[in-house]
């Protein structure tokens, strides 16, 4: 794949359903290098878990020649989560692309074509406000402002890119408890890092938010993970 910067103004979360480890690694590495947030899975149960925890905006899955069933369960999962499904398919397997796929892309992938398909798929999704808010914190995903406390102090300059990503992720559902694994997958782009790394990022983020007058945010939920809270 060509090394092209994505045309989207905000990074897109992509879930790749791929059984072949080598191709999986190649696609994930290529897309991550282009600025997308990509995570992969090869089992339906894992895919279902990631759809709920990681909130992908697009699902890519490969269709093989002769595979009549394949990722059939993706149809139900994608429809339930309202996530567009894009099939990756070689020319000799075109007739096996399922009717429920929202789009397809020929392998080997062309970066410009992939970007165009992702843009088209995400454009069909309902528009979201640029602001993510709770009672004490507001993040603007377009301008990267981070306003904290009654005084609405902007602490964006104090946060690292990872801390901002974690804060935005927790703020997407303030009352939801996110596991360390979910935060790791969604915000660190590396399945090999320790969950203690998540704790370290949260601790630093909490101190910076506390310095602006809001204490104990994010909240630690013993044995479960973290949530932003009110």
Automatic annotation (TrEMBL):
SMART domains: Trans_reg_C. SUPFAM superfamilies: C-terminal effector domain of the bipartite response regulators, CheY-like. InterPro entries: CheY-like_superfamily, OmpR/PhoB-type_DNA-bd, Sig_transdc_resp-reg_C-effctor, Sig_transdc_resp-reg_receiver, WalR-like, WH-like_DNA-bd_sf. Gene3D superfamilies: 3.40.50.2300, Winged helix-like DNA-binding domain superfamily/Winged helix DNA-binding domain. One of its GO terms (biological process) is regulation of DNA-templated transcription. One of its GO terms (cellular component) is protein-DNA complex. Keywords: DNA-binding, Transcription, Transcription regulation. Residues 129-230 form the OmpR/PhoB-type domain. Residues 129-230 bind DNA. Residues 13-122 form the Response regulatory domain. GO terms for molecular function: phosphorelay response regulator activity; transcription cis-regulatory region binding. This is Transcriptional regulator. It comes from Duffyella gerundensis.
